[in-house]
Automatic annotation (TrEMBL):
<dbReference type="Pfam" id="PF01121">
    <property type="entry name" value="CoaE"/>
</dbReference>
<keyword id="KW-0173">Coenzyme A biosynthesis</keyword>
<keyword id="KW-0067">ATP-binding</keyword>
<protein>
    <recommendedName>
        <fullName>Dephospho-CoA kinase</fullName>
        <ecNumber>2.7.1.24</ecNumber>
    </recommendedName>
</protein>
<comment type="function">
    <text>Catalyzes the phosphorylation of the 3'-hydroxyl group of dephosphocoenzyme A to form coenzyme A.</text>
</comment>
<comment type="pathway">
    <text>Cofactor biosynthesis; coenzyme A biosynthesis; CoA from (R)-pantothenate: step 5/5.</text>
</comment>
<keyword id="KW-0547">Nucleotide-binding</keyword>
<keyword id="KW-0418">Kinase</keyword>
<dbReference type="InterPro" id="IPR001977">
    <property type="entry name" value="Depp_CoAkinase"/>
</dbReference>
<keyword id="KW-0963">Cytoplasm</keyword>
<keyword id="KW-0808">Transferase</keyword>
<feature type="binding site">
    <location>
        <begin position="11"/>
        <end position="16"/>
    </location>
    <ligand>
        <name>ATP</name>
    </ligand>
</feature>
<comment type="similarity">
    <text>Belongs to the CoaE family.</text>
</comment>
<dbReference type="GO" id="GO:0004140">
    <property type="term" value="F:dephospho-CoA kinase activity"/>
</dbReference>
<dbReference type="InterPro" id="IPR027417">
    <property type="entry name" value="P-loop_NTPase"/>
</dbReference>
Amino acid sequence: MIILGLTGSIGMGKSTTAKMFADLGVPVNDADAVVHSLYQGEAVAPIEAAFPGATKNGAVDRSELSRQLSENPTLFPTLEAIVHPLVRERERVFLDLHRVAGAPLVVLDIPLLFETKAQNRVDAVAVVTCDPEIQRERVMKRPGMTAEKFALILSRQTPDAEKRAKADYIIDTGHGLDSAREQVSAIVQRLTSQKRP
């Protein structure tokens, strides 16, 4: 089974691209969806202990947690120490399940792939990218997004050029959905027609 890591900076179209892999029948483990689930389950108690007031009605209040982190960015490693091991455990279960099922290819959708050294856990890396102008336009349309928040997020992400330099595959989402689908399809065909990239 080949494990493809999928990553890309905020606003590059990673979630849409992950769905394109899924539409082709490739199992996708979405780290964001896993975190969302953890924020309503196993992560709630440890996050409340480390970030008092950051949970509400038995779930993590993302806007309050975000507020605390933007006020004190030195707390990011505290949050990561809680969340990353839980995400890794879910990832392990996903991989075991599809290995047993005989899947030829799976995708691990990991937003901070290079930042967390996750490239060491995959066979190949695909980086989703687009022009910075398109990226900014997409991100600034998000509810509650500000220029300051966008800058903080970017400061915590490996620069796009560096990600592209380290990638085995690059998917450019700046030319429309059909173009991106063709790129995804070509990667899937290439990886499933050989044992290793």
